[in-house]
Amino acid sequence: MPLLARLVRRDLPRLGGYDAGMPPARKRPVSARISPAQTWVKRLKKGRPGLVEDALSGLATLYGTPAWKPRMDPVSELVTTILSQNTSDTNAERAFTALRARYPDWAAVEAAPVRSIAAVIKSGGLAAQKAPRIKAALRATREQSGSYDLTFLTAMEPLAARDWLTAIPGIGPKTASIVMLFCFGVPLMPVDTHVERVSKRIGLLPPKASLQFAHDAWLDLVEPSRMYEAHVALIRHGRGHCDALRPDCERCPIRARCRYVEKRAP
Prior knowledge:
With 266 residues, this protein is mainly α. It contains 13 helices and no strands.
């Protein structure tokens, strides 16, 4: 498959049977104590029972149910996600292609000067910030695994794996969750602007919830086996019907339960 075809994020989640190719079911990530996000989810499920199920069922009528399958290799996914920060998918793809064309392997990228990497990936924007982040991610991976291989993360608990990734400078919970969900099928929700907006409009998240709160809340909002389905559905809805400026509420299948449409929706 051509490189660019593998990199187009918006088109990668295909419709089909969800169980096709899905990795073995994983336990829900757990933390040592009850967090504010867990308290919120508990109250939400009691006060608005069936909301998540109704939302996912409604969105499935528009977008179907996506089948999980691995995308890129994990290190490529990590680097691409760093490049996609604060820029378009097209720019990130262009920068990734340029990076792989300039350097023969990841060892060469790690060894290259930051200024040289920044010059190569300048089409992705914020190159001076992203170049050292890429080097740091590659160095941390090599030091941990002895090579440029992130599969060791699958032996860790989901939250521990997320913590390991976010310890790398410039890697936040969204980037970490993308790698874990899309490469390994680990049930962590990457909360981007679309997921955040749709979740808050429906009322799955508090209106003023932080991104950290959102990432933590989604650990308990949905069953682990449906995390990928939920992520893809929310992304697609945010790019389509639930536009930031002109949402098409009249044709939305979950409008009856959406707090954006009706503040007292059940």
